[in-house]
Amino acid sequence: MTNNETLLSIGDVARFLNIPTHTIRYWEKEFRDFLSPSRTVGHQRRYTDDDVRKIRDIMSLLKNEGYSIAGARKILELKHKRPETPEARTTDVPEAMAQKIVEIIRAQFSVPQALEKTAVA
Description:
Blueprint: H1 10-17, H2 21-30, E1 38-39, E2 45-46, H3 49-64, H4 69-80, H5 86-89, H6 95-109, H7 113-120
Antiparallel strand pairs: 1-2
Helix pairs in contact: 4-6
């Protein structure tokens, strides 16, 4: 976070993304390794542009792509896994293999289209 970066309250983010504040709080608990906004001295949440992008990613996985919380968490872990040591960098997964892993996880956690349509109807 830079000194010039605008910080948003949870209410501002909720209005901007058209989702309830309690949903954002819930996602913070479920995705704490991925989403943890800064706090003021009074413990109020303050969201950066990057935090808002992360919330959008979570929202897209859950609402648009139909993943469960567990499935979305696995996708985000794979997308944002960074090697911590030089040794770990030598064992990075090639991009094509990472994409295949994501596809397998999507297949495991996604709802079949037939069920999805009957649930909506």
